[in-house]
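Sanity check

After download, print the first record. It should look like this:
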Amino acid sequence: MDRYLKFIFLFLVIASCRRSDNADSIAPGQDFDSYLAEQVTGQNIPALSVLMFKGSEIKYEKYLGVADKTTNVPLSDAHVFLLASISKTVTATALMQLFEQGKFKLDDKINDYLPFAVKIPGHATPVSFRMLLTHTSAIADGKALDDQYYYNRDSPVPLADFLKDYLTPAGKYYNAKDNFYDFEPGTMQEYSNEGSALIAVLVESISGMDFPTYCKQNIFAPLGMNNTYWKLADVPVKNLVRPYDGNQAIDHYTFTDYPNGGLRTSVRDMFRFLSAYGNEGIFNGTQILKAATVHEMLKQQIPSIDPTTGLHWFIMNSSRNIWGHDGGEQGVATIMGVNPDTKVGVLIFTNQGNADLDNLLTAAYDHAEKL
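Expected structure tokens:
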């Protein structure tokens, strides 16, 4: 399945999962550890990290399997997984920090801040920051993305250069039909990885810093996320978790539009980030966002179009008020969510591209509430 079709398939699955409040499949009286072991075996997951927390306190964590089946190194808290689309929550956080500084307003036109102009073919309505954050921009994930994977190295293509070539008529990757949807921006929703990558270009343009450096200085370092990386070259090789699709091992890879899915981190690092969203932007005294900003991001933004959508966050389970995100890529399945009322949250990272984690998130959240 090529990248373009895979993203469409994954979004349909993810959207369906978000709207479902069905009970998980844990058996009556079954303890969570045995349920977790069943999931690992039944879904052929080589490595699985689970962490549950309340507030800033870890209540449960488990590391099952091996980071690489060829070396049989047991999974540990130091190992980092590729997060896939969970990465978008970090990208959005970087942008919203600049929003707090008064650098832009959510309904401003992005073209007033970009080094190049973006126009949706056939429509005069300009794309706004809010449209990018709610996947209503009408920017599509075209087939040009299939050629932007790089194995065992980082992409040599600068992010802004690629998106200029992808979104402007003179660009070598431009395709008016393939790279855009045919609806007026703001009137419909279609999940957009390239819209998310464009958010990072806006962060670079507004802040004057390259995106990985901005995130390290303003998110990762303040939160103590010292095992978190945008660039493959920066990750200690011994910490990498090998991705798998079924039994097929996949080489470590990156892609040019990395801010939409290329973050690598551990569950302990990402716990610090997610915990802050469950506590009005603060983790252990460090504030990465103001409470009002967090409330805005974890709020229905387009209820008439999709009532599960916040600002690059989604309602994962409405009956439990779990807000979060999930991700799927080659050899990767991840999910995380937090209830901002109870401050209870869960993170689940796996290196199995075929894994279905929706029921596991529900079971883990229910278990965490009892701890």
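If your output differs, re-run the checksum step. Summary of this record's structure: Residues 1-24 have pLDDT under 50 and may be disordered.
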